[in-house]
TrEMBL record, chain A:
It comes from Actinoplanes campanulatus. Residues 1-107 form the HPt domain. The modification Phosphohistidine is found at H46. Residues 103-122 are annotated as: Disordered. This is histidine kinase. It catalyses: ATP + protein L-histidine = ADP + protein N-phospho-L-histidine. The keyword Cell cycle does not apply. Residues 415-550 form the CheW-like domain. Its EC number is 2.7.13.3. GO terms for molecular function: protein histidine kinase activity. Residues 568-684 form the Response regulatory domain.
TrEMBL record, chain B:
SUPFAM superfamilies: CheW-like. This is Purine-binding chemotaxis protein CheW. It comes from the Bacteria. Pfam families: CheW. The lineage of its organism: Bacteria, Bacillati, Actinomycetota, Actinomycetes, Micromonosporales. Residues 29-164 form the CheW-like domain. GO terms for biological process: chemotaxis; signal transduction. PROSITE patterns: CHEW.
């Protein structure tokens, strides 16, 4: 902009959002009426009209007004909008879209879809993926930043404390130097006090820094996520393309989309959406049969075109399915023969061979190229995108039942929630969406599973592989504590289980492919960078499934399970909820857990069984947590068992008291953090 | 010596420095890093490296590629790390301590065990035609040093070897 104060600056943003909502709303309405979508559309159109008037965009305001006028008779939701009304709404929607696009990018000529094909309606050839991050994402990022900033407060207080302690230290030093101190005992007491205060200030600093570190992690993950866009952003244009094509063909077609939430780089979604616009149009024009034929074939009158997006290991998979007639194999064979594409002398190609020819271009699956699409063009577009993005295309067709075209492209960046697990001394991440469950394993269970290669889950036996074996990179794992839990994973060919040392919580992350020169076993899908800037491996469920099936190297190495197992943990808390919560956390992390509802019970239990750690509340009826810890410290048989205090008391004095009593760690209920608690336990627990 | 005497001496030294021919540091010398990998001494050309880092954590990678230790993080980038000793055919079980980032693309780090010292030697001390026998052509030259000769590791040749081992095919345009 030539001028800093561009009057349309905010209107452009708002109008773009409103137009997106109108486009989606019209299509919603098209697939099912009712008062609600109408009211929503009216609201949005009205907002746009008002905003356009304010910035003197008369044309947009007029179109929005006309849009309202068309919609008003259907406000009651009794009758769905007539076909004419829908057409008019779509036309106005296009007009408004075009005006808004002009505002954003004035000199741009209208976008065509290619020289071979007359452009249908003003649907863009490639979905322009909104580079502006979704408002919700930005809000979350801002929240996370706000949270981090809030965590600075204890540091500031801490700075003041350090300054005060510094002065006290100087005073004390002065007194000692001049020798005016009353008695050495007073000086010693002052020094002791100072040391105590410094100690607790230091702990508060450590806590604050830990918290800020965690918050910053969150901020980083969210900011990285902003580089990615949800796949759902390309669905509106596809619905529109299906709608337009169906309208032109006089067919009834429903568009279904799955996987809107899968996020990936805009550079992938753009080209893919362009190619898929061709595919969905093809599906409507050539796949879906005219209504009488469908009815005669026993199919619903309304055809369905589905676009699915999913992440499969290190690939994003886009699939276009229809329930139409499938490819016409006979016609394909004829065309191939006519064009001399079949090798002379060879027999007639099978269906797979023919589909391969379709994929390589040159044969249209439609006998006539219509205005909307020829299948060859669609296939060319998909093939071109596949080549550009180094992907793969698969075509399937079942005569009479439908066809599917699948494009799998390797991902550069992918946002996901990961389950962090420790195995063989390494921390690795599993995509959470493939994890079906976690099972705690006792040492005996783990040994049995490792020997038999099976584990019982949900009533059936699932293949089992110690993850440390799949990750074995040639060096022994010094920190391995042995298998304590099994993670049950959903693979392509069923469930399987991975033996891990412990679970370490979930985290949001952005995964990227392994670098080019780092060819790894198929078990590793991608890599992410942790808070310390070090790479962490993200596992690929399908690759792992293959390892499990192959029973890789099961005899080549000594069992990774023959190592120290942690002794059971005794949880002491008068609250049932807390006891159960802590038990589930600890058991998921692979620990064996006993529960005591009071410190008295706990002392009794501790004398009859060997525990590896006490996890105790402070405020309990009868003996409180501090006293419990003190008594166990005083008992020579129990003094060696570490204790962790868990309490809603947050003051430094309580922390100090806990430390003085002999607790190995202090966890605040208010900021209960599984990963941190498990970290303390991992560090402290006694192993047999 | 008096202060005046010292001033005179300093002035003479200063003036004399202008009378001497200009020394060109780069000309005729080569900068090397004396390192050891798998207990054997080597030299690396500094010009072929874009960085040298000690004690950087390397995430081990399950792999069948010879010498591939794992991946390490460098300013947010994930870089494959190869064990130089293993690439040169004499791996030892100890994890190397130092990482040298090789010039060129794609990113590559070579790990070696010890960094002995930095050297600047005249070209004349670099002898061509070293027979590296079975080192995949990574050792062509050697540098003569007072404490013995060191083979010079040809980093671009090592990179080529890594590309071969990793089955890397260069692509005209990176899809990013």
């Amino acid at each position: 902009m030539a001028e800093g104060r561009d009057p349309l600056r905010f209107f452009r943003i708002e109008a773009r959002e409103l137009v997106d909502q109108i486009s989606a709303g019209v299509l919603d309405l098209d697939q099912g009426g009712g008062p609600e979508p109408v009211a929503r559309l009216l609201r949005v159109a009205h907002t746009l009209k008002g905003a356009a008037r304010v910035v003197k965009q008369k044309e947009i305001a007029d179109h929005a007004h006309a849009f309202e006028e068309v919609l008003i008779p259907y406000r009651g939701g009794d009758v769905p909008p007539s076909a004419d009304a829908m057409r008019e709404l779509l036309r106005l929607n296009d007009e408004i879209t075009a005006r808004v696009v002009e505002l954003e990018d004035p000199p741009k000529p209208p976008v065509g879809t290619g020289p071979d094909e007359p452009a249908p309606a003003p649907a863009p050839a490639e979905v322009v993926v909104n580079p502006r991050a979704a408002t919700a994402d930005l809000d979350e990022l801002l929240d996370a930043i706000g949270e981090t900033t809030a965590r600075m407060a204890p540091l500031r207080t801490g700075c003041a404390t350090v300054e005060r302690l510094h002065r006290s230290a100087e005073v004390l030093a002065d007194q000692l130097r001049v020798g005016r101190s009353t008695t050495p005992a007073t000086a010693r007491a002052a020094a002791g006090r100072l040391a105590g205060e410094l100690g607790s200030a230091g702990r508060r600093f450590t806590d604050a820094v830990d918290q800020i570190q965690r918050e910053l992690d969150e901020v980083r993950a969210r900011a990285e996520g902003l580089r990615l866009v949800p796949a759902g952003s390309m669905f509106t244009a596809m619905r529109r393309a299906v709608r337009d094509a169906a309208d032109a063909e006089g067919k009834r077609v429903r568009f279904e989309a799955r996987g809107a939430g899968v996020r990936m780089g805009a550079h992938l979604l753009g080209p893919v959406s362009g190619a898929f616009l061709h595919l969905v149009r093809n599906a409507v024009v050539h796949g879906i049969e005219p209504e009488p034929l469908r009815l005669a074939a026993g199919k619903p009158a309304e055809g369905t075109v589905t676009v699915e997006v999913e992440r499969r290991g290190r690939h994003a998979v886009f699939r276009c399915l229809d329930d139409g007639r499938g490819f016409d194999m006979g016609a394909l064979r004829d065309t191939a023969r006519d064009r001399g594409l079949l090798p002379s002398g060879a027999g007639p190609p099978d269906d797979a061979g023919l589909l391969d020819l379709v994929l390589r271009g040159g044969i249209s699956t439609s006998p006539s190229v219509t205005e909307v699409a020829g299948r060859a063009i669609g296939m060319d577009a998909v093939r071109e995108v596949a080549t550009r993005l180094r992907g793969e295309v698969k075509v399937r067709s079942t005569p009479g039942a439908g066809a599917s075209v699948e494009l799998a492209i390797p991902l550069v960046l992918l946002s996901m929630t990961g389950l962090n697990v420790a195995a063989g001394g390494m921390m690795v991440t599993l995509p959470l969406d493939v994890v079906c469950g976690c099972v705690r394993l006792s040492a005996e269970d783990a040994a049995t599973a490792a020997v038999t290669g099976r584990i019982v889950y949900d009533g059936s036996a699932a293949p089992f592989l110690p993850l440390a074996e799949a990750l074995y990179a040639g060096t022994a794992a010094p920190e391995s504590v042995g298998i304590g839990a099994a993670v049950v994973v959903k693979g392509e060919s069923g469930l399987f289980a991975l033996g891990v040392d412990r679970l370490a919580g979930t985290s949001a992350l952005v995964a990227r492919p392994l670098p080019e020169l780092a060819r790894a076993s198929p078990a590793v899908g991608s890599v992410t960078v942790d808070a310390d800037g070090n790479p962490r491996l993200v596992l690929d469920p399908d690759g792992l499934a293959a390892e499990v099936a192959g029973g890789r190297l099961s005899e080549a190495r000594p069992q990774a399970t023959a190592v120290l197992t942690p002794l059971p943990i005794l949880v002491v808390d008068d609250s049932l909820t807390t006891r159960m919560l802590e038990r589930s956390i600890l058991e998921s992390a692979g620990y064996e857990v006993d529960l005591a509802a009071s410190a008295e019970d706990a002392l009794e239990m501790a004398r009859t069984r060997r525990y590896g750690l006490f996890l105790t509340d402070i405020d309990m009826p009868g003996i409180d947590g501090f006293t419990f810890v003190e008594r166990t410290r005083a008992d020579p048989r129990l003094a060696g068992i570490p204790a962790i205090l868990v309490s809603s008391r947050a003051s430094a004095a309580d922390r100090d008291r806990g430390r003085d009593a002999g607790a190995g760690a202090y966890v605040e209920k208010g900021e209960f953090d599984q990963e941190r608690l498990l970290g303390h336990i991992e560090r402290l627990v006694v192993r047999s | 010596m008096t202060v005046a005497g010292r001033v005179t001496r300093l002035r003479e030294e200063f003036d004399r420095s202008f009378a001497e021919p200009a020394r060109v540091l780069e000309c005729g010398t080569v900068e090397l890093l004396a390192v050891s990998a798998g207990d054997r001494p080597y030299a690396l050309r500094l010009a072929e490296a874009s960085g040298v880092h000690p004690d950087r954590p390397v995430t081990p990678l399950p792999t069948s590629v010879r010498g591939l230790l794992g991946v390490a993080g460098f300013a947010g980038a994930v870089v494959p790390v190869y064990d130089l000793a293993a690439l040169l055919g004499h791996p030892v079980p100890r994890r190397p301590r130092w990482l040298l980032l090789a010039q060129g693309t794609p990113p590559l780090a070579l790990a070696f065990h010890e960094l002995d010292r930095h050297l600047r030697v005249p070209f004349a001390d670099v002898v061509d035609g070293f027979d590296g026998g079975g080192q995949d052509g990574c050792l062509h030259e050697m540098v003569r040093l007072p404490d013995g000769h060191r083979p010079i590791v040809d980093v671009p040749a090592v990179r080529e070897l890594v590309h071969r081992l990793a089955g890397h095919r260069p692509v005209p345009e990176e899809v990013r």
